[in-house]
Amino acid sequence: MTTMTATKHAPIAGACVWNGKDIQKSTRWIRDLTPAHLAELDKALQGIKAKGLDWSQVTRENFPIKGFDDLLESIREELENGSGILKLRGWPVTKYDEADLRIMYNGFAKHLATPVFQNRSGEMMRAIRDEGAHVGKTYGETKDQKGGTFLSSYARTLSSGELRFHTDRTDVVALLCVRQARKGGVSKLASSPAIHNAMLAMRPDLVDELYQDIWRSRFGEEGTTKETAYPLPIWGVRDGKFTSHYSQTFVDAAQLSTNGPKLTPKQDEALTLLRKLAQDLCMEMVLDPGDLQLINSHVTYHGRTSFEDDAASGNDRLLLRLWLCMPNNRALPEGHEILWQQIEAGKIRGGIQQITI
């Protein structure tokens, strides 16, 4: 029988605390592009094309969109001070080719926030699709304790396999669904402060473990080997605002390293309960083509089920991903500089540090 112990940590309050079965019935996190919005996006797109520019050359200045201020502010507010999730429906993914969609998507994002690097080679927009059996050799793999293949988090993202609940190293993850798979690829979202509160009610002693350093590896991000490990708590609070950074794959990779301590039995128990609660409290949803999903990493875990493509029928899953640093982002706890570099509110932060030659 587990002995309950006192803890200094309090429940998190606010709209960011939600149960999947409840928020699934709500529309507070859903917005729609209007015909006027679409006309403005098309006008700005044509202006970029007339200049002979591609998506990577889009700026706020050369991609003007009128009438978006209220929508942009509503999105920022919902992500930072509301539920932490948002779906913007109505992107015209069947009307434009991928090159044009990238221009419109990047132009919109530049007005909403500041995109940051998603890998160490300077990629700003990533096509999330199944890239085939070579992903481990291309994006990072090593051997686990049993001699099996251990894929980096980056390699897993570009496979058709399941993705466990995790956060990305950015304030907000944006995923534009261009095409969906023939089968599977269900998006799973969970409120990390809701998981925190549920664990606090059940096992406050385990909550304390997740406010302490847990070692993770940068393998597949900045690091090309499993030895690039660093310590960081899973949970933190500053100025009344919660934040979490979690990836079981990063934790598992650190356990393969020789540069850091092994998980204690109690840390392992806490992470096991976290995973169970994430599944218990999550919302599952299928992104339809034309849906843009935005997720605040500080208060949301996301994952997906495995999927099967059928390119012949046009059902080969393609999402375009941006990592966004938000202008109204929260302050982060001291010690989180090891991951974010900047921890003060309103600062540019997140993304993957670049290789310097």
Question: Short summary of the structure?
Answer:
The chain has 357 residues and is α+β, with helices and mostly antiparallel strands. It has helices at 20-23, 35-50, 69-81, 98-112, 135-139, 153-157, 192-202, 204-210, 248-256, 265-281, 337-340, and strands at residues 30-32, 85-89, 114-116, 125-128, 141-143, 149-151, 163-166, 172-179, 183-184, 187-191, 213-217, 229-233, 235-238, 241-244, 283-285, 292-296, 300-304, 307-308, 318-325.
Please describe what this structure looks like:
The protein is an alpha+beta fold. It has one domain: Double-stranded beta-helix. It contains eleven helices and 19 strands. It has helices at residues 20-23, 35-50, 69-81, 98-112, 135-139, 153-157, 192-202, 204-210, 248-256, 265-281, 337-340; strands spanning 30-32, 85-89, 114-116, 125-128, 141-143, 149-151, 163-166, 172-179, 183-184, 187-191, 213-217, 229-233, 235-238, 241-244, 283-285, 292-296, 300-304, 307-308, 318-325. Strands 1, 2, 3, 4, 8, 16 and 19 form a seven-stranded mixed beta sheet that branches. Strand 5 (141-143) and strand 6 (149-151) form a beta hairpin. Helix 7 packs across helix 8 and helix 7 crosses helix 10. The longest helix is centred in the C-terminal third of the chain and has 17 residues, at 265-281. The termini are far apart. The model has no long low-confidence stretch (mean pLDDT 89).
